[in-house]
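Students often ask why we bother encoding 3D structure as a string. The short answer is that it lets us treat folding as translation between two languages. Here is a chain of 660 residues written in the first language.
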Amino acid sequence: MTAGVAPWRIASRPDDPDFSRALVFERPIAGRWLALDYALDRFAAPVRPMLRFARADGSHEDALLPGPVLGRAAWLGPVPPSTDEIRLAAPAEGFRIEAARLLSRTAVLALCARRRPDTLPVALYQWLRRDARRLRNTLRIAAGVRSLAQYPLWKAERARPFEPALDRVPPGLPRLGLILEAAPGDEAAVRRTLAALLAQSHRDWRLALHWRGQAPAGFAGDPRISAEALPDGIAIGFLRPGDALAPDALTHLAAAFAGLEPADLAYADSEAETSEGLRPRLKPGWSPDLALTTLYPGRPLLVGRNLVARSGWAPGQGARALLLAVALAAPERVRRIPRLLCRVAPDVPDPDGHAADLARALDRAGSPAALVRTGDTLDLDWPLPDPPPLVSVIVPTRDRPDLLRVAVRGVLHETAYPALELVIVDNGSTDPAVAALYADWASDPRVHRLDRPGPFNFSRLVNDGAAASRGEVLVLLNNDVEVLHPDWLSAMVRQALRPEVGAVGAKLLFGNGRIQHAGVVVGLGGRAGHILRNRPADTPGHLNRLTVAHEVAGVTAACLAVARHKFEAVGGLDAEAFPVDFNDIDLCLRLAAAGWRSVWTPRATLAHHESVSRGPSVGPARARFEAEGNRFAARWRAVIRDDPYYHPAFSVTTFGEELE
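And here it is in the second language, the structure alphabet:
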């Protein structure tokens, strides 16, 4: 037995339907580090497993593990002090733990020295200072998280070959149709694509090979390959010369169109050679706004023939026009396959062609959105009614006249929106300077004040402000937010008035100009967190998401817009379960459950001096935060394990978009 390896076994826990198994070691576990390697059926959804570190007193800490998107995954993390039992939430079938090891902190430090030697001085400093929380985080990131630049190494460590005993191929897979358009000079690239296609484990496919100009000889040896305009198949999709499908790619894609509820549209992850090396394209769940403006589904993508017919697309219009048409046709059943199924040929940037195709698609679909272009970036501009609806900006506050003065000045005098009221909900201010501000604002008919003294309950303050307001759109705004651009409110209201949109969030920056809020990932940090926090303001994000408005699981109530009838339909903020924290994300998830998705837009950019008026959560405040966090985790565990807009291969340990 090698050093550091402890005997272990899996025990059943039938009393808990979620954490139904326990990982049992023969040696003490508390205070050690746990390294896990595990595998999953390649054709099962790679939902993140969870570990629960349970204590004898009934308390616990949970850890969210990466999804095994390549068939295998690994995790390394600390076992909290006083842990009595390690419980496991994972699929009942098709899942196995391949290795479980208990490591000392010294062993983890040595691992960090090998993987990220630059972090070792920081870790040693934290160890000497007995800063246990920061030390755990530093070691977790250094030993268990890899950047996208390390993708080839990450892939090599996790790729698992097909195993007939574990990987259960779905039965009754339908025929698929593919289109490959090529030009003179593409012959070698076409041969690579055909070689990968001929090696597919799913063999029921048809390919329409279209050459521009004279077709070269030697490319029609297989009877499944023809020059028809549209190939036979229950779904169709495009390939580019040079694309190389993984051997089981068509099996995965065909499975999406099988069964009693076949997909309208299915797409999967890919990888591509870039100027910086091999990089993945790890795609979020179905995000129609993002699809229209960034074409993120890319390849491989297949569209059911019924949706093709309904979209109005016709053969000869091309792959990009197909994606835009079907995105605007509102597919009901979309399957995102979080598996790396294709190495795609490099795309040639074509912003002019994209803009022209998108404009035509919007016109054909009768969409009210207008196209906005800034350089090579495309975004959509949604209309405002004439006259614009009244907006009620609700600002809970207590003291801190320096912050409140800036926030109110921004709303009343630095915002271009013509129809607004400001509802200030005062939670017991005693500073005379605040009373002086209220006296100054008393003559402005747009300003209304509610006095709500008592213990701080953000949710109740907001709900009371909403009940006392008159606007068709509600905007929740912290008293530590500063307006930077006059069009911020118009940008948010345009989104909030869309029938399909619930909560709308803004791009918020710290005082130093770095990102404070670019959307919330449910599961980040174990419960929910801000993605790409503290990155430079112009960070584009994976797939260029931060350059355009797009769907997210949640947004912060520091600056959140929502139509009144939607807010009221779900009962507003939950003042009982979440008086201070997690209330905004809980609201977004309840709106989503009611059919309204959340949208984040960079066209509304403000400064947020985060929680400066409340201060950090320590002592009893920290205990209250943890209690609210536990309630949030219990209510939304399914979303925590699978945020629809965050890839299961991405880490939830850092602030996002790194591999684990």
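Translate back mentally: The first helix runs from residue 105 to 115. Keep this in mind for the problem set.
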